[in-house]
Design brief:
nine-stranded antiparallel beta sheet, Multidrug efflux transporter AcrB transmembrane fold, alpha+beta
Length: about 1050
């Protein structure tokens, strides 16, 4: 029994199956996790080692090189980058796209555990696995008010705990609070007076501040626990602690030689909202959380705190759920209007009942797709929703083909049930082949590499699932509905629009067949002219079109060594300027972080770092553009003293592709790398439209180097480690114990000298250190001191030192017109154009700088990976499509005829981009790959009908004309429904739709042109190819009388 016959004979089962899919699908659609972008696992890890007070050069030698040597043998590492800065080593390890990341993580941890020879004072390495949810927070909760430091910290902790109790909140990071600390600040003069050193204070506190259990003891029948209680209950006990008793019984106490303070730690970060002090809590969600629901709970909790704590100011910034809701609304509206347009087009050609049969397949296919998405761990996000909008018109194509064929038999007077079975059965394999060719164009996109490949992975999966769902609906559900609900049609009703189109088509196709050589030449010329517009750059190119963000991020650095307060002064000047500039009316809020900025998927904490997040109004409500706002701020920053460098960063939207311009030079000598880096920066600064240029070499803090006198150390019984530890305690401070007071929370007890007493080298010279024999000597007895300059950081890539020069591209004026500078432009200016032979300013790099390697990263690197893998995917798609067609036609020649629509559809793609003024992009290339599978469908069915006519003995001329006339309605309908399904997206002015417009335009216009080509070019090509093979006596139609060139046969 055929599938169609089973469907027609079991209508109750089919209807129940449909009801189940609708119920389960609606539930799944509501409950499925929702987020802005796919939660891509980057396949990368960050390893961090903290070693406070150590210079970048020492971090490179003592930490970086040892870890690199150990983990370098881990399999499938694509590349690794390392950064050694003051007191911190950060390593970024990226694995190959096809690596098993879970296994890679285990291997990496195993190798990391083998690193045993790190310095004793260095913290243990810790490793983080990166994915979109770890990098991009769900929202930022900013709180403030007139509270003390302790109070705001406690409030922040309470807020954090309540937020963590919300379902699907994974973590909450607090920035801007200060922990409680107990400071013991030694007075150098009083220590000298009493003959004491800092080590004496440290020993006294550590020997006293402890509770020691001593077992149990019985007194009579009762058993008691023995415990020696020595922990400090308050800071007065610390101050009164006896350090030493002299021979006369006089006690020297801590308070005699030091000041004890119950205070807050020194600020390392300053958070502000609109210039007012605040604390920022970054909230992250779990993988299976629905961001819209989670954010609703977060807002509710924040409102509760505002109500319960008088004077508390709280605001939620960077709310990710807003973009998700906007995207869902935009794409949802596009889908809704698309369905209406599709139904309208079906109604015109097929009537309301048949239009309803076809249209019901859209929600059925979508809901079945949502059900299947769960098994592929796919969430509802921008990419999956766009995939569904893209196939909105396609998923009715197979239903249209089936229904139109059934409808044709009904018009011929056949019984409805028999027509449903025969019409479906007759067209089943061409329909399966058509859906297969479409899916075959999308599935190879899974081969795309790089970050874009990971990001785009869900797109072909969702599209393929929707196509398969629609195929199931048209072959299993649709025949039952037609048989059950359609009424017999006694005679064919005239259809004025359709009949008129058929008459005009017959005249036009006859003209094309009579002038087939000229017709084909005209189409080829049109294709060449279209490709020339690309070569002449009449269509601009962007790698990945982005939405205009609601946020401008400004990152800046003051000179290395600038303290936090001084950096804050500079930032405050910038804030004040922003609040006063004319573009202020477009700004909703400014969230500032001083002492920290986001960089390379992590927070980089330094006193000279700062980041301003400028939140803007909705784009439709803005008076000024982003470019104008940035230009105004830039003009101020260029004149503001105290800034070392600044950069406008891209908000985290879409896949992280790095900077627009990212150039690496590998070498060994740091001075030589700096020299080359300056040359490259000079070349970039000459290119209009390249901004925010900076390099990774920055002058570091001046370094006090301690040179031990080893013989003197041996004489006094001291070691280098003792000298280093002593100086660290005196200048930086050392945690020597923990303080609980009467509570349960532990706080650090920090020992150091008074800050004002260590102002220069002379103060270090005369510090007193206790020798091995118990005597006090000046530090200069056992060490010399020198001041030297160093770098702020040293970077590696694959164990080689590098300098990295970065920048962004923006609009620039060329011949009075504003143009967008692209990454490709910059690369051609620097490296030349291989096609034209033009030389670039760095074309002779290897000759000028032998022994150094020049590499392009960021967008350029992602472009290379994406293009290479996309072209490979296109080749695989073509091969799969050819295989499907060859199997369907049992021919090696006819697939070539069908596939001729693929190159000619480029005319429509390029024309569409020119007309709409949209740039060509990676999305456009993806659309071309997708078109390869879509545009052959109509050609496939058309050629199949030609073959059937000729197999009946009809001559070629009439076979081509009759097949075109018979397939005219379904060909137009399948194309119109797909185009109408995309039209709301193309016409949308929403920012949520902007990044996908080039793809929608490319497919819609490409398909429109391909439809015309299918109706005219395919018959002409078929005729030409058949003539060629007929002349040499090769034919598949044995009953054909002859291959005379009939160009004007009577029908």
């Amino acid at each position: 029994m055929s599938i169609a016959k089973f469907s027609v004979n079991n209508s109750v089962l089919i209807n129940m199956l449909m009801i189940v899919v609708f119920i389960v699908g609606i539930y799944t659609m509501v409950e499925i996790p929702k987020e802005e972008m796919p939660a891509v696992d980057f396949g990368s890890f960050i390893i961090v080692v903290m070693y406070p007070g150590v210079s970048p050069l020492e971090m490179e030698q003592l930490v970086i090189q040892k870890i690199e040597d150990e983990i370098g043998d881990v399999e499938n590492i694509d590349y690794m980058e390392s950064t050694a800065s003051e007191g911190k080593a950060v390593m970024y390890i990226v694995f190959e796209p096809d690596a098993d990341i879970d296994k890679a993580e285990n291997d990496l941890r195993a190798e990391l555990d083998k690193v045993r020879d790190l310095p004793d004072d260095a913290n243990d390495p810790y490793m983080i696995r990166l994915n979109m949810r770890e990098v991009n927070e769900m929202c930022a909760v900013v709180i403030g008010g007139n509270f003390s430091g302790n109070a705001i910290r406690e409030i922040s902790e309470d807020v954090r705990e309540e937020l963590l109790n919300i379902d699907y909140v994974s973590k909450v990071d607090i920035h801007g609070t200060q922990e409680r600390e107990i400071w013991i600040q030694g007075d150098i003069n009083k220590l000298d007076e009493f003959g004491l050193s800092l080590s004496d204070l440290q020993n006294s506190i550590q020997m006293r501040n402890m509770n020691v259990p001593a077992g149990t003891i019985k007194f009579g029948k009762a058993e008691f626990i023995i415990r020696t209680v020595g922990e400090f209950n308050n800071t007065e006990q610390i101050a009164n602690l006896v350090v030493r008793m002299d021979s006369n019984g006089r006690a020297t106490r801590i308070r005699d030689v030091a000041v004890v303070k119950d205070t807050l730690e020194e600020r390392s970060i300053i958070s502000k909202l609109d210039g007012n002090p605040s604390v920022t809590l970054f909230v992250y969600k779990k993988a299976d959380g629905n961001i819209i629901k989670v954010m609703k709970d977060v807002r509710h909790k924040v409102e509760e705190f505002k109500e319960n704590i008088p004077g508390l100011d709280a605001a939620i910034r960077n709310d990710g759920s807003i973009d998700v809701k906007n995207s869902i609304n935009t794409l949802g509206k596009s889908a809704l209007f698309g369905v209406i347009l599709v139904f309208f087009s079906l109604f015109i050609f097929l009537g309301w009942k048949n239009a309803s049969f076809a249209a019901i397949g859209i929600p059925f296919s979508f809901l079945l797709t949502f059900i299947l998405m769960q098994y592929f761990d796919i969430t509802m996000n921008n990419l999956t929703l766009f995939g569904l909008v893209l196939v909105l018109g396609m998923i009715v194509d197979d239903a249209i083909i089936v229904m139109e064929n059934v409808h044709r038999y009904v018009e011929m007077g056949m019984n409805v049930k028999d027509a449903a079975v025969k019409g479906t059965q007759e067209i089943m394999w061409p329909v399966i082949a058509a859906v297969s060719t479409t899916a075959a164009a999308f599935v190879p996109m899974l081969m795309m590499q790089g970050m874009m490949g990971k990001f785009m992975r869900v797109f072909p999966i969702v599209v393929t699932l929707a196509l398969l769902a629609s195929l199931f609906e048209c072959l299993v559900i649709l025949p039952s509905h037609i048989a059950e609900f359609s009424k017999p049609q006694k005679k064919k009703k005239p259809h004025k629009i359709h009949d008129a189109l058929v008459r005009k088509y017959r005249r036009a196709i006859k003209f094309a067949l009579r002038h087939r050589i000229l017709f084909i030449l005209a189409v080829i010329v049109a294709l060449i002219l279209s490709l020339m517009t690309i070569a002449l750059r009449l269509v601009p190119f962007e790698f990945f079109p982005e939405q205009t963000p609601k946020t401008i991020i400004l990152r800046l650095q003051t000179p290395i060594g600038t303290n936090l307060d001084k950096t804050n002064e500079v930032v405050s000047n910038i804030e004040e300027f922003i609040y006063q500039m004319k573009e202020r009316e477009d700004i909703e809020a400014v969230v500032t972080t001083v002492g920290m900025m986001a960089k390379n998927h992590r927070w980089d904490t330094k006193t000279n770092n700062a980041q301003l997040r400028i939140d803007l109004k909705d784009i439709d409500d803005m008076k000024y553009s982003h470019t104008e706002i940035k230009k105004t701020i830039r003009s101020y920053l260029e004149k503001l003293p105290g800034i070392y460098n600044y950069q406008f960063a891209k908000p985290s939207q879409g896949p992280p592709t790095g900077n627009d311009v990212e150039i690496r030079v590998k070498g060994d000598n740091l001075d030589r790398l700096k020299y080359i880096g300056n040359i490259i920066k000079d070349e970039l600064e000459k290119i209009p439209g390249v901004v925010d240029i900076e390099d990774s070499f920055q002058p570091g803090k001046k370094e006090v180097q301690i040179i031990p006198k080893h013989e003197r150390l041996a004489l006094y019984g001291l070691s280098v480690a003792q000298i280093a530890g002593f100086i660290r305690t005196a200048s930086y401070g050392t945690t020597i114990s923990e303080y609980r007071g009467n509570g349960t929370d532990e706080y650090d007890i920090i020992l150091r000298l008074k800050e004002e007493q260590i102002d220069d080298l002379n103060d270090l010279d005369h510090l007193k250190i206790r020798t091995g024999t118990g005597n006090l000597i000046d530090l200069n007895e056992v060490a010399d001191f020198e001041i030297k300059s160093g770098l702020a950081q040293i970077r590696h890539r694959d164990k080689k030192r590098i300098i990295e020069i970065t920048g962004n591209t923006t609009l620039y004026k060329d011949s009075g017109k504003m143009k967008k500078r692209s990454t490709d432009d910059v690369m051609q200016i620097l490296m030349g154009n291989r096609i034209t032979g033009a030389e670039g300013t760095l074309s002779n790099f290897q000759q000028r700088f032998p022994g150094h390697i020049l590499e392009f990263g960021g967008v350029a690197e992602e472009q290379r990976k994406s293009y290479t893998s996309l072209f490979l995917a296109f080749g695989v798609a073509i091969l799969l499509i050819f295989t499907i067609l060859a199997t369907q036609f049992k021919s090696y020649v006819q697939p070539f005829i069908v596939m001729m629509t693929i190159p000619f559809s480029l005319i429509g793609v390029i024309f569409g981009l020119l007309v709409t003024g949209l740039p060509a992009s990676l999305n456009s290339l993806v659309a071309i790959v997708a078109l390869a599978g879509v545009v052959v469908n109509d050609s496939l069915v058309l050629v199949d009908f030609v073959n059937r006519e000729r197999a009946k003995g009809v001559d070629r001329w009439n076979s081509l004309i009759n097949a075109g006339a018979i397939r005219l309605r379904p060909i137009i309908l399948t194309s119109v429904t797909t185009i109408f399904g995309l039209m709301p997206m193309i016409l949308s002015t929403s920012q949520s739709a902007s990044e996908w417009k080039p793809m929608a335009v490319s497919i819609a216009f490409g398909l429109a042109f391909a439809t015309v080509l299918t109706l005219f070019v395919i018959p002409v090509i078929y005729s030409l190819v058949d003539s060629l093979f007929g002349r040499i006596g090769v034919t598949r139609f044995k009953t054909h009388l002859s291959y005379e060139e009939c160009v004007d046969c009577d029908e």
